[in-house]
Amino acid sequence: MSKNHPDFVLHGPVRHGDLFSPTLSAGDVVVIVDGIYHHRLALRHKEILDALARGITVIGAASIGALRAVELDELGMIGVGRIYGWYRDGVFEGDDAVSVAHGETGSPMGINVPLVNLRAAVLAADSAGVLAREGGQRLMARLEHEYYPLRTLDRVLALARECGEVAFADWYASQVLTDPGAFDQKRADALEAFALAERFALPSRTAPASTTTSGRDWRTEFYRRWRNRYAPAPSVHHRVAYQQIFTLDFPDTWWDFLHRSPDLGSVGAPDRFRSHVLQQLGAAAAQWLDEPELRTRITTLLCPLPDLAEPEEAQLLLRQESADDRTRVSHWLHRMQHHLDTHPERSLGQITEATCQELLSRIWDAHTAEDLALECGRRGFASLSRAASALRPFAIGYLESLQTARTGEGGSDA
User: How far apart are CA 314 and CA 247, in angstroms?
Assistant: First the structure.
């Protein structure tokens, strides 16, 4: 909660996955200001489009919020403030103009002065008669060529003096000494966005319908994968992956899923899966539907990515899940995390695809490349690489379980 805005819920800088949160729903208002990038995945555009499609109002200002708003304002996002206007009008193009570097202490105070704040200072100096417009343009051009983490206050003052703008350097230093936030345009724009959000959040207001200027479907497979990771309840994607890999009869579950998947024909249409097969694969392929031993030809070719944020789809894929399965998933994920925490030099990526292939061959009793490919399709994996990615979080726990089983067998023999 915010002291000045008691109805607001404050969060840290936005990062990839945040807007998929199930705590956000139609009628909510989201204000995006700062965001994580560089060392973490940044907020993706399609996460914002997803929020808009769910009836959530998204306002952007000041930093990554202004950048995303310029890129998505025609699709329903709302941009606010001078910085948004500068990007929209082409004054700035690079994201370094709003970037702030931070030290390793975790302090929210940035190392550098954002270029957008320096532009606000230059414009104020022009209005105050301290800096001529041409001089301000030269200074801004020089500042733009400086790598953004190096634009510290001392460096800015030094560059101003190098450009012959000694009066501006002295004036700017005095202004900032008196009021450190004197030219904080990012803060001013954020406050403007908060004020707009309060008006949008009035009970009498309803969320606007999302708009689009294109008939293209932006819900790509990458978007679905992100949504599967962040939108459902925690670990649902791992629980489904466990069923896909380790449940003996999962191919039957996947075959039923294909018949119900909204990605494979219009929901409610009679025999829509057969119609979809006819349309996509041809009449010869439709004959495979009636021959159980030929179904693998279809599952190899048709492999939609489920939307695990849709409860009906997740429940169908988890219909064979037992309490023991959930316990094992939790335990194996815990073992994986413990192993990585105690061996920081290691990562799941070091478990090679060849190793995963060997493990899958054992689990599925599939010992040729062709058999593995067919089994991937029967279990809803578009490729062996996808199956390997799904297996990696379980590999350590699975191998430990094999070792335990061998030890137990050895003990009983003794």
Answer: 15
| Sheet with 29-32, edge to edge strand ranges | 29-32, 57-61, 78-80
Note whether 273 and 255 are within 8 A (CB): no
Average pLDDT, stretch 214-242? 82
Structure tokens at 349: 């990526």
- The kind and range of the H/E element at 411 are helix 384-413
Residues 303-333 as b/e (b if ≥16 CB within 10 A, e otherwise) read bebbbbbeeebbebbbeebeeebeebbeebb
* Distance (Å) of CA 386 to CA 225, 248, 295, 315, 382: 11, 19, 20, 21, 7
pLDDT digits (tens, 9 = 90+) for 117-152: 999 999 999 999 999 999 999 999 999 999 988 999
CA 50/CA 223 separation, integer angstroms: 9
Beta bridge pairs of residue 57: 29
Measured CA to CA, the distance from residue 139 to residue 165 in angstroms comes to: 8
pTM (two decimals):
0.75
- Residue type at 140? M
Q: Are 314 and 308 in contact (CB under 8 A)?
A: yes
Q: What is the pLDDT of residue 108?
A: 59
Q: Which residue in this structure is represented by tokens 């890999």? A: 245
Residue that the structure tokens 């800015």 belong to: 156
Cα-Cα-Cα-Cα dihedral sign, residues 336, 338, 342, 345: positive
CB 235 within 8 A of CB 28: no
CB atoms under 10 Å from CB of 365, counted, come to 9
- The conformational region for residue 172 under phi > 0 = left, psi -120 to 50 = alpha, else beta, is alpha
Handedness of CA 199, 202, 205, 210 (dihedral sign): positive
Angle at 385 between CA 382 and CA 390, to 5 degrees: 85
Contact yes or no for 394/243 (Cβ under 8 A) = no
Cα separation values, 231 from 63, 210, 383, Å: 25, 19, 24
CB 357 within 8 A of CB 384: yes
CB 165 within 8 A of CB 157: no
The structure tokens listed for 60 are 């952007």
Amino acid in position 120: A
* DSSP 8-class letter at 58: E
pLDDT, one tens digit per residue, over 39-94 is 678 889 999 999 999 999 999 999 999 999 999 999 999 999 999 999 999 999 98
